[in-house]
Design a protein that fits this description.
By secondary structure, the chain is an all-alpha fold. The chain folds into 2 domains: 65 residues, no CATH class; 208 residues, MetI-like fold (Orthogonal Bundle), CATH 1.10.3720. Helices cover 73% and strands 0% of the residues. The chain contains 15 helices and no strands. Helix 2 crosses helix 14, helix 5 packs antiparallel against helix 11 and helix 9 crosses helix 10. It starts with a helix and ends in a 6-residue tail after the last helix.
Amino acid sequence: MAEKRSGLLSWWRNRDKSVYLAYFVIAVYLFFVLLPFFFTFITSIKTSKELTTTPVTYIVKTPTWQPYYSVLFERAYGKYLLNTLVVSLSVVALCALFGVPAAYALAKYRLPFKTGMLISTISVRLIPPISLIVPFFLLIRAINALDSLQSLIIVNFLMNLPFFIWIAWGFLKELPAELEEAALIDGCTRIEALWKVVIPIASPGLGAAAIVSFLFTWNEYLFALTFTQTAASKTISVGISDFVGDVFVRWNMISAAGILTTIPALIFVFAFQKYIVEGLTAGSVKG
């Protein structure tokens, strides 16, 4: 027994304690992150009667999937989901279309006032969104786009483009100039070198920027609340408020809609998570 105990002590002394500390920190972090999801889920499968009972129960006595059925088939949730997907994917496409050339120019060309342009670009993203409500409202009204998906696409594009440019610039400026020079020697134009050489190599960083832009647009609430009024243009973040009545709040349906709303975003992130990992680690090791 003494030998066994001595062996265990020796094994423990030789172990790297930082690994266990890291696991502990991750476990604590996951606990606080997942706890709201747990309460949201158990609320989503409670009946209206059980929701109003006191004291609050943390174990569902009579679980029901009726809130999910009501959200999916008796409400306009499907339309809100489609609107959100259209807006989010359109914003990502526009950010890539305009952001990549802009970031490439800032990273590879010797432009006057380049530092000032970079600072002003990210400064726009640092402005509190609520302070831009009136200017954006006047712009959207001037082009007759109120209560439309176009208004949300324009506003979210303008808000996310600076952030996309800043991230893309950080990756593009690290690419060796020899890669483009080799492409130019082989007969490529600047545009062809960008499309055939630069973008494929920088795809992890550009993919990370696209995913962040997608998630920012997916979760956006303030502009969607201000510029939309009908189900034809509402997004999920605003549409969930339909479950708040004049005298009664349907907490189980709100929770069910919240759980369903996270699923597409999680699928998108998990499908492209390699771009996030590669984008965060790209350039961390130089040969």
